[in-house]
């Protein structure tokens, strides 16, 4: 068993456990911490795939920026804590069967997947290749993404102000 395989299994289990904790926890801040745990594990998986740029982006964008935005969203909005009904053990078993079935389906779908000669040099200078593709072929979608993010930020601020005014009126 190679060290890379052990690292993959450890990071994959950490990502799955973080995702399951995110779904199972009830406090929102704990859910965000579990989500960060998952994002960092996925960044580790990117490192194992020789995609260091994607790993850095994963840590900076998702683990940093998206998590901070989620925490600000939690702090800016009002939400009532209500106890939800517990899920029965039958439903948990059905969910487990569904998750295992989906995992098996995905494994069988990619088990014999071959990219041919297309994926030979992807691990060499992958950051340079991403930069060239992003700023030559895909510059318009890249800029449109920044506009969409700006509109979402403005919308979040407007919604937060609206909630603030409604709370003052009551």
TrEMBL record:
<dbReference type="GO" id="GO:0050136">
    <property type="term" value="F:NADH dehydrogenase (quinone) (non-electrogenic) activity"/>
</dbReference>
<keyword id="KW-0520">NAD</keyword>
<dbReference type="InterPro" id="IPR042106">
    <property type="entry name" value="Nuo/plastoQ_OxRdtase_6_NuoJ"/>
</dbReference>
<keyword id="KW-0812">Transmembrane</keyword>
<keyword id="KW-0472">Membrane</keyword>
<keyword id="KW-0874">Quinone</keyword>
<keyword id="KW-1133">Transmembrane helix</keyword>
<feature type="transmembrane region" description="Helical">
    <location>
        <begin position="93"/>
        <end position="113"/>
    </location>
</feature>
<feature type="transmembrane region" description="Helical">
    <location>
        <begin position="28"/>
        <end position="47"/>
    </location>
</feature>
<keyword id="KW-0560">Oxidoreductase</keyword>
<dbReference type="Pfam" id="PF00499">
    <property type="entry name" value="Oxidored_q3"/>
</dbReference>
<comment type="function">
    <text>NDH-1 shuttles electrons from NADH, via FMN and iron-sulfur (Fe-S) centers, to quinones in the respiratory chain. Couples the redox reaction to proton translocation (for every two electrons transferred, four hydrogen ions are translocated across the cytoplasmic membrane), and thus conserves the redox energy in a proton gradient.</text>
</comment>
<comment type="similarity">
    <text>Belongs to the complex I subunit 6 family.</text>
</comment>
<keyword id="KW-1003">Cell membrane</keyword>
<dbReference type="InterPro" id="IPR001457">
    <property type="entry name" value="NADH_UbQ/plastoQ_OxRdtase_su6"/>
</dbReference>
<feature type="transmembrane region" description="Helical">
    <location>
        <begin position="53"/>
        <end position="72"/>
    </location>
</feature>
<feature type="transmembrane region" description="Helical">
    <location>
        <begin position="6"/>
        <end position="23"/>
    </location>
</feature>
<feature type="transmembrane region" description="Helical">
    <location>
        <begin position="139"/>
        <end position="160"/>
    </location>
</feature>
<protein>
    <recommendedName>
        <fullName>NADH-quinone oxidoreductase subunit J</fullName>
        <ecNumber>7.1.1.-</ecNumber>
    </recommendedName>
</protein>
């Amino acid at each position: 068993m190679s060290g890379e395989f052990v690292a993959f299994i450890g990071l994959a289990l950490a990502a799955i456990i973080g995702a399951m904790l995110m779904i199972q926890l009830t406090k929102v801040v704990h859910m965000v911490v579990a989500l960060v745990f998952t994002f960092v594990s996925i960044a580790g998986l990117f490192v194992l795939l020789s995609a260091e740029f994607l790993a850095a982006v994963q840590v900076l964008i998702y683990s940093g920026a998206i998590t901070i935005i989620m925490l600000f969203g939690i702090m800016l909005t009002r939400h009532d804590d209500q106890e939800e009904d517990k899920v029965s053990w039958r439903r948990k078993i059905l969910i487990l069967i569904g998750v295992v079935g989906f995992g098996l389906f995905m494994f069988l779908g990619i088990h014999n997947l071959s990219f041919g000669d297309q994926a030979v040099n992807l691990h060499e200078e992958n950051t340079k290749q991403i930069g060239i593709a992003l700023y030559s072929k895909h510059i318009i979608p890249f800029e449109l993404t920044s506009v969409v993010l700006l509109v979402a930020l403005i919308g979040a601020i407007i919604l937060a102000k609206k909630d603030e005014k409604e709370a003052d009126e009551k």
